Amino acid sequence: xxxxxxxxxxxxxxxxxxxxxxxxxxxxxxxxxxxxxxxxxxxxxxxxxxxxxxxxxxxxxxxxxxxxxxxxxxxxxxxxxxxxxxxxxx
Length: 90
Hints:
By secondary structure, the chain is mainly β. The protein is 4% helix and 43% strand.
């Protein structure tokens, strides 16, 4: 799981049947200092996130098992919208 920021949308005229009706968002990893670095991922939005929001992203088997209808067919899913982050003990 990682914290990322939604930086765009993906529009697909044809999708796998299990993805019909889902929103695909472009997400980039966000570090604690607020910078966006690393590779860009496309994630299935399970929580109604939008561009500019900070989100929690799961990937790999955790994403594929996030909803039975996906049955391992997705590699990244947005599972939460972050309101705030507090770091204790640094």
